[in-house]
Structures are given as structure tokens and as C-alpha cells.
Design a protein that fits this description.
Elements: E1 14-17, E2 20-23, H1 34-38, E3 41-43, E4 46-49, E5 52-53, H2 56-69, H3 78-92, E6 97-105, E7 119-126, H4 134-139, E8 141-150, H5 167-178, E9 183-188, E10 193-196, E11 200-205, E12 208-212, H6 221-232, E13 237-240, E14 252-257, E15 261-268, E16 271-272, H7 277-296
Length: 297
């Protein structure tokens, strides 16, 4: 769900746009912007805890890497992007919020080729509570199985956080919500479990964590954080191909992502899970990590 409040083009505040902070409502692009027509845009989703941006440099580096996979270079360094993100947090006085950097090709050329289009960078911030309500987290959310599949990496730049790759995520989540679910799980082109529409997925069996190998979808920064937290607890983490029928043998399930943070799952299609000890441990450990970020701010 989007954050509650006014439309996103009509808010108070400031947005970092191509090197300077400008009034929110002035951050506009032309209707013939290449990114709007050909999805030549990459973005990041970042959480701010107590005024500090969680894993900021990792996010900024991934943004630069994503752009290169889409064959363009962002004209600001990782360090400069880090500093711009901090300026946005400070200027908007939002110590606990969601941050959205986005880079895109402009409107200098229209057509598939856009070799000389200017590369833009914008950074916005807004208050966005946990992706799912606390009540939903406690009981576990319900996921539908999507009809859409994550593509073969030979057909799309799947290692990038590219805008165009989220089209089927929007379609999947819209259908899931219309059908009474919270989100959807997506398989990949081989029929293996991939991810939810905006979060990675983990399963438990006999005290071990199992998670799909991210070979055709994003290796989430929150995903890597949770893997590290699990290993610190001595929990074995197995990254591998997981087939749908294996879900009948898993005990627990949860999602990880910047927006979702750590969210237990109770249902995926016909499969049922009971959020238990491992889910609770990962929720608590992730909460401690983010509270430590706040304490250091």
C-alpha cells in the first residue's frame, strides 16, 4: 500500500533534483521523458531510522550499478548520492521515513535509442510506516500465487532495480488485493519460487532457513542483512532452487524488504505456515539492528 496522505505530486516539503533541493511541487518531468515511454529508470527504496539511513552506501552503490546495467552512468558519485540523501532527510525533518532515489533518462531523444539523453537524479522522502500493519504481521499475511513469472536473465537486466521489472509486480499485487490477499508470490520462468512483488522470501524447516537463490531477481539488502543475522544466531541458511510443492514441508515463512522489513506469512495459495520461533527471532533481531541505528544517530 502507498503511504496515506495527499497525492504524491501535491505535498509540502523538498526534493533533491539534479543537484539541488527544490520545492516538492516543482519536481516535474516532461511527458516525453524517455523513462516514461521506455522504462529507462532505476531506483532505490531506503528506510530512515532515527535520522540515519539504513545501509545507505549499499543502496547508493546498487543504484549506480543498476544504472550501468541499463547502459547509463549517473553523473554523481556514490559519496555524492549518500550526501544528497542525507540532505533530503535533514531538509524535510523526517527522522523515521522512507527514502526514494531515482535516476532516469530525460526527454532529449524520443525513440528506442536515447544515447544523448540527459541523466537525471531525484531523491524524495515521505512517512511510510511498516508495509503491512502490525496486526497483519502478528498473524502472518496471506499471499496469492501470481500468474506472472520473473523473467530469464537473458531477457531482462534482472540484477538491476529497474522500473520496468516491476510492471508484472504491480499486476500481480493488484490481482491479489482484489481477491482478498495481502500480496502475491511469484515463480520464475523455470517454475521455481522467486520472490513476492517487492520482497524476498524465506522458509524454515527443522530449524534451518531456506531461501531462493537470487539468480533472476534482486538480491535484497534486507535479505542479506537477515541472512547475516540468522548466521549470527547459528541458524543454517540454505540458498537454493525451491520448487512450489516443497512449500508443503516448510513450517514457517516470512518476507524481507526495505518496505516490508521482516513480515511473517501464514498462507501462500493452498500452503499454510505458522509464524513461530524463527520468525520471532528474525523480527526481534532486525528490530534491534534498526534501533541500534536510531541510538547511534
Amino acid at each position: 500500500m502507498a503511504a496515506p496522505g495527499p497525492a504524491f505530486d501535491d505535498r509540502d516539503g523538498t526534493i533533491w533534483f539534479d543537484g539541488k533541493l527544490i520545492p516538492w511541487r516543482d519536481a516535474q518531468v516532461h511527458v516525453l521523458t524517455h523513462a516514461l515511454h521506455y522504462a529507462s529508470a532505476v531506483f532505490e527504496g531506503e528506510r530512515v531510522y532515527g535520522g540515519e539511513i539504513f545501509k545507505l552506501t549499499e543502496h547508493s552503490q546498487r543504484l549506480v550499478n543498476s544504472a550501468r546495467l541499463l547502459d547509463f552512468e549517473i553523473p554523481w558519485s556514490v559519496a555524492e548520492i549518500d550526501e544528497a540523501c542525507r540532505q533530503v532527510v535533514h531538509a524535510n525533518n523526517m527522522p523515521d521515513a522512507y527514502l526514494r532515489p531515482i535516476a532516469w533518462r530525460g526527454s532529449e531523444m524520443m525513440g528506442v535509442s536515447a544515447q544523448t539523453s540527459k541523466i537525471h537524479l531525484g531523491i524524495a522522502i515521505w512517512v511510510w510506516p511498516s508495509y503491512f500493519s502490525p496486526e497483519a504481521k502478528m498473524k502472518g499475511i496471506r499471499l496469492q500465487i501470481s500468474d506472472w513469472r520473473r523473467p530469464d536473465p537473458r531477457t531482462a537486466p534482472t540484477a538491476s532495480k529497474a522500473a520496468g521489472l516491476y510492471m508484472i509486480c504491480t499486476l500481480s499485487k493488484h490481482k491479489a488485493e482484489r481477491d482478498g490477499f495481502d500480496d502475491a508470490i511469484m515463480f520464475d520462468w523455470r517454475g521455481q519460487i522467486a520472490e513476492a512483488t517487492g520482497a524476498n522470501v524465506f522458509f524454515t524447516k527443522d530449524g534451518k532457513l531456506h531461501t531462493p537463490k537470487p539468480d533472476c531477481f534482486l538480491d535484497g539488502i534486507t535479505r542479506r542483512t537477515v541472512i547475516d543475522l540468522a548466521k549470527r544466531r547459528g541458524i543454517e541458511v540454505i540458498e537454493r532452487a525451491i520448487m512450489p510443492d516443497e512449500m508443503s514441508g516448510f513450517q514457517e515463512c516470512f518476507l524481507t524488504g526495505t518496505a516490508a522489513e521482516v513480515t511473517p506469512v501464514s498462507e501462500i495459495g493452498p500452503y499454510r505456515f505458522t509464524p513461530g520461533q524463527v520468525c520471532r527471532a528474525m523480527l526481534e533481531d532486525f528490530d534491534k539492528v534498526t534501533r541500534a541505528v536510531k541510538a547511534a544517530a
